[in-house]
Amino acid sequence: MPSAERLRGEPVAAEIRADVRDRVHELGERGVTPTLATVVMSDDPADERFVELKHAACRDLDIASRDVRIDPDAPAERLHQAIDRLCADPAVDGVFVQVPLPDHVALAEVRQRLDPATDIDCLSFTNLGRLVRGDPRYLPATPAAVRRLLTTYEVPIEGEDVAIVGRSEIVGKPLTNLLLRDAPDGNATVTVCHSRTSNLGAVTRQADIVVTAAGVPGLVDGSMLSRGVTVVDVSANRIESGSEGKTQVVGDVDFESAAAVAEAITPVPGGVGPVTLAMLVSNVVLAAERRADAG
Ligand code: NAP
C-alpha cells in the first residue's frame, strides 16, 4: 500500500498566486499592468493547451496577455521578427517562446535574440549564463517549481544527493544549476542522467531526491529507489487509456511501486505543473516591477 506523502502542487501554486495578486495590485496603483506575450510556432494540440493555461492564469490574476501565432511552416525570420517586435514593445514585460520549435528554426538564434530583461523563462544565452554563474535574473519556471515544491514541503536540499533523469535545456540542465547554487536551497550534489546512462537504477538508488524529466512513462519504478527517497516527477506524458481513444497524463515514475518506498512523491498530474505555471506568472510580475522601478 503506497504510504508516501503526496507533494501536491496546487497548495504551493495558490501561495505563489496570492503573492502575485498582491504585487499586481500594487503595480496597478502605480498605473502599471503587467503584460505577458506568448509566441507559438507549432500546431501541436499539447502546445495549444500549455499556452491557453498561461493565458488563463494571467486572466485570473489581472495580468494582460497577448498570444502571437506563427505558422510552423513559415520561415524562421517570421519568428525572429515577432520576437524583436515584442522585446522592443514598452508595453510587454515578459516574452515566452513555446518550445520545441520546428526543425528548420534554430533555438540558438532565438536564445540570441531574446532581450534578457523580458526573457522571463531564462531561454536567452545571457540569462542562462547568469543562472550557471549562480546569479539568475529570472528563475526558469519548471526548475524553480521543482525547488519550490521541495522547500515548501521542507525536503532538505543542502548536502543531499540528487539524481536528475533528463538533461534537456529546459528542465535537466537549468535545474542542475539551480540545485548547485551556493545557497541553503541549493548546495546539493547533483548527478544528471540521460538516455546513454548505462545503469540508471544504480544512480537513482543512491539518491536522496530523484527528479525525473525524461518523457518516458514507467522509466523509474520502486525497485530503482531507496527507501525514504523524495521523488519529483516533472514529466507529463499523454498516453492512451482504455479502448475508446481516451488519453491520460502520466509521469515517468511508476507511481504505485515508487510510493511504496518513497517518503514523499509528486502526483502526475497535480504536482510540478501547477507550480510551474504560477512561477511563470510571478516572473512576469517581477519583470513589470523592474520596469516600473527603472521608471
Ligand atoms: P526532452 O527535451 O525530450 O529531454 C528528455 C531527456 O530525457 C533527455 O535528456 C533524454 O536523454 C532523457 N531520456 C530519454 N529517455 C531516457 C531514458 N530511457 N533514460 C534516461 N534518460 C532518458 O524533454 P523535456 O522538454 O525536458 O521534457 C521532459 C518531460 O517533462 C516531458 O514529459 C515534458 O512534457 C515534461 N515537462 C513538464 C513541465 C512541467 O512544468 N510540468 C515543463 C517542461 C517539460 P538524451 O539527452 O540522451 O536524449
Automatic annotation (TrEMBL):
Annotated pathway: One-carbon metabolism; tetrahydrofolate interconversion
Catalysed reactions, as listed in the record: (6R)-5,10-methenyltetrahydrofolate + H2O = (6R)-10-formyltetrahydrofolate + H(+); (6R)-5,10-methylene-5,6,7,8-tetrahydrofolate + NADP(+) = (6R)-5,10-methenyltetrahydrofolate + NADPH
UniProt entry keywords in alphabetical sequence: Amino-acid biosynthesis, Histidine biosynthesis, Hydrolase, Methionine biosynthesis, Multifunctional enzyme, NADP, One-carbon metabolism, Oxidoreductase, Purine biosynthesis
Binding positions (NADP(+)): G166, R167, S168, A236
SUPFAM superfamilies for this protein: Aminoacid dehydrogenase-like, N-terminal domain (SSF53223), NAD(P)-binding Rossmann-fold domains (SSF51735)
Record-level Gene Ontology MF annotations: methenyltetrahydrofolate cyclohydrolase activity; methylenetetrahydrofolate dehydrogenase (NADP+) activity
One GO term of the biological process aspect: L-histidine biosynthetic process
Boundaries of every Tetrahydrofolate dehydrogenase/cyclohydrolase catalytic domain copy: 7-121
Domain Tetrahydrofolate dehydrogenase/cyclohydrolase NAD(P)-binding, residue spans: 140-291
Enzyme Commission number(s) of this protein: 1.5.1.5, 3.5.4.9
GO CC, alphabetical: cytosol
Subunit structure: Homodimer.
Entry similarity comment: Belongs to the tetrahydrofolate dehydrogenase/cyclohydrolase family.
Job of this protein: Catalyzes the oxidation of 5,10-methylenetetrahydrofolate to 5,10-methenyltetrahydrofolate and then the hydrolysis of 5,10-methenyltetrahydrofolate to 10-formyltetrahydrofolate.
Name this protein carries in UniProt: Bifunctional protein FolD
Gene name of this polypeptide: folD
